[in-house]
Predict the 3D structure of the following.
Amino acid sequence: MSDTDEDVWEPALAVGQLFMGGANALSSLVLKVPSGLDDISGDWVKIDTSQYGAFVEAALRKRGSASHPELMSLMDGLLPVMIMLADRSGVGITASTPAERAYLEWARDRDRVLHGHIVEQRDGSVHVWGRD
């Protein structure tokens, strides 16, 4: 974070790159607001917490009012991670509608992450997390 130089997330390099690609596209192409994320080395990103909070809230507003199924699906892959980073960074995210409040609750539900993820095993079988 730009205020403290504290680490808030240490994903694998490919995961971080995928996140940054999505965040950059959402910021510049869809929302047209700065993300507050500054890729300083390809492996480290500084977060300007005030800009990042505004970015996450703009994304939450967009998702809360979205009706396009593919946009909703794409944002559902990115926005929960954005919210997690905001929470870990101490950035307060304010929901202004019931839909936004419900989305925040859903995104912060740790059990949500464990349901519906399909993983191919080394033997070729498939395992779905959260199902016994």
